[in-house]
User: What shape does this take?
Amino acid sequence: MSIAQDDLNLKLAGVDREVAVMCIACGRQYPVEAVNDGCQSCGSLLEVRHPLEALRSTLTPEWVKQRRSEREFPYNSGVWRWRELVAPFSNANLVTRNEGNTNLYEDARLAKYTGVDSLWLKHEGENPTGSFKDRGMTVGISHAKLCGATYVACASSGNTSSSLAGYAARAGLQALTFVPAGKVALGKLSQTFAYGAKTIQVDGSFDLALDLVRQVAHAAGVYLVNSINPFRLEGQKTIIFEAIDQLNWQTPDWLVVPGGNLGNTSAFGKALYELRELGLIGQKLPRIATIQAEGSAPFYAYYKNGFKDFQAVAPETVATAIRIGNPVNLPKAQRALEWTDGLVETVTDGEIMEAKAHLDRSGIGGEPAAAATLAGVRKLTAAGVIKPGEGVLGILTGHILKDTDSIVQYHSDPTLPGANAPVKVKATLEDVLKLLGL
Ligand code: F0G
Assistant: This one.
């Protein structure tokens, strides 16, 4: 059924504009209000296609400026401000917490640490539930509402489940989350059950949990919001729209992001592609560098062998957010690298935690997966891949408080760089002054 034929139904269902949801491999098209976790014909990934040619005359730099100045619902959300490039849902279906609107930081110490001349760090940990997931979740949950879902579900290494739980609670939907037992940072796990999600600990990795929740979704008609959901990625694109807007539409040379299930890598490639099609940025796109943890790096291996032979891995890393061995967005992420002349790099757990200590000491802070960005920038600069004079936009994906265990553990080992363990003292002025050497 083509979108045009179905237009009347879509309007009745709360969809106010034509977009196409289609398979990236075979081109089969689906109605906007359909619930799918992949193409029913060939099993490949679905994506949302916007009528870019038609939007070109509307989405001008003046339009961007005008939208930025609007303060009312829904344009006070850093996602729905870009609604023409996100999803065509009517206002009544939007479930939003004014996500996005995150800061872009510059810090001389971190620039020096990474060896980069111009480093901008966009902190997606500043979203309502503490990670970039909220940008995708507002779209996913709004779509679930549009589709009349009762149950919404995900597999998660912790942040998707926190975000899903929070947004489902706002929408009055029941959330089901499947998480790898013992491998989710406590900040995320506690957030998930506090917001009221049914939290199912799966004896196995994130990849196994995802496989399981997909089966549950098919068997029980539950709405799935993992990043195989094409609407999720439309929300995550706005990280790039907003960052480039904050840079006054000067594109950086590099865009560095941690990679797990590769939703962000995919979304960022699509965001850049669309901005170029619209004429909002020039022809030369920033190069995407996806950073994986060395123990969870199947995309790196695939990239290194020329995208010929993909092998899933049994993942392990201190950055539990990206402890993923079989990323579902692989073909979209590959496409993003091809569009942007991108690359994949790995960093060790030691490099991640050292970078995290620097990130935290700068006063900005972030969870280990966020610090993988910084460690990746440092490694690519040291290797001469990022060149002197090039500008780098790094994405910090999660908040410092998401994973406090990793912080306490790191700072308890005095041999580690920057370790800063708390000290105990007797509660007398004399003892305190002695301790402080004052
Ligand atoms: N950084 C953080 C903090 C994350 O939580 C995730 C993914 C990533 C990076 C990787 O992003 O999957 O788009 O490549 N977390 C998911 C979750 C898997 O369940 O919370 P990706």
Observations:
- The first strand starts at residue 20 and ends at 23.
- Residues 1-10 have pLDDT under 50 and may be disordered.
- The radius of gyration is 22 Å.
